Amino acid sequence: MTNPYLLNPIYNKHKVYVHNLSYFDGIFILPILSKLQDKSTKISVVRRDGSLINIKIKFDKSTIDIRDSFLTLPASLAKSFLVEDKSLFPYDFVNIDNLNFIGEVPDIKYFNNVNENEYDNYKSNFTTSWSLKDDTIKYCINDCKVLYDILVKFNELIFSKFKVNINNYPTLPSLAYGIF
Fold first, then answer.
1. Are the CB atoms for 70 and 97 separated by under 8 Å?
2. Mean model confidence pLDDT for the chain
3. Fewer Cβ close by (within 10 Å): the C or N end of the chain?
4. Residue 130, SS3?
């Protein structure tokens, strides 16, 4: 097998955080990871009470851990840490039959927790047509940036107060115990 991007030696011992890994993203990630496993790649999963605590991937001499940030920060994150919020996204619009949709921006009813003004502002960004695929990619990139900013701020906060690195603790209870 060729070296997967994240298993490049420069990322050895890094933690990769996925928000809601246990209840959403893990459904997509685990089947892909299971296809990577061979003699040179070992994948181990730590679960507890139905949650994915950690996915460890070892490739040659490199190791990364994939963790669920929701197990460390189970809250609405952007507002709590004063970082740029996620962009709007029509979650309820997406279905298996329209993944390649290109056309008008979906109706406001497909967006969660959006007022008319926010919706109109979002809609004004699309003068020609709206693409579900393109908007999904933009949304996911922004989501990753927001999560990164939040984790950096949270780690700085915890380290400044308690001299503890959050990356050493995969869950909020384990972090609390580490602080204690």
1. no
2. 87
3. C
4. strand
pTM of the predicted model, to two decimals?
A: 0.78
Lookup: tokens for 130:
């709206």
Measured distance CA(106)–CA(98) in Å, rounded: 12
DSSP 19-61: TTIIIIIHHHHHHHHHHH-SSSEEEEEEEETTEEEEEEEEETT
Neighbouring residues of 68: CB distance < 8 A, sequence distance ≥ 6: 17, 18, 19, 20, 21, 22, 26, 51, 52, 53, 170
Length of the chain: 180
| Confidence band of 167 (pLDDT split at 50, 70, 90) | very high
Q: Within a 10 A sphere around the Cβ of 169, how many other Cβ atoms?
A: 19
Q: How many CB atoms lie within 10 A of CB 78?
A: 15
Judged on CB neighbours under 10 Å (0-12, 13-18, 19+), 69 is buried
CA distance 128 to 21: 35
Type of residue at 169? Y
Compute the distance between CA of residue 159 and CA of residue 152 in angstroms, rounded to an integer. 10
CA 139 to chain centre: 11
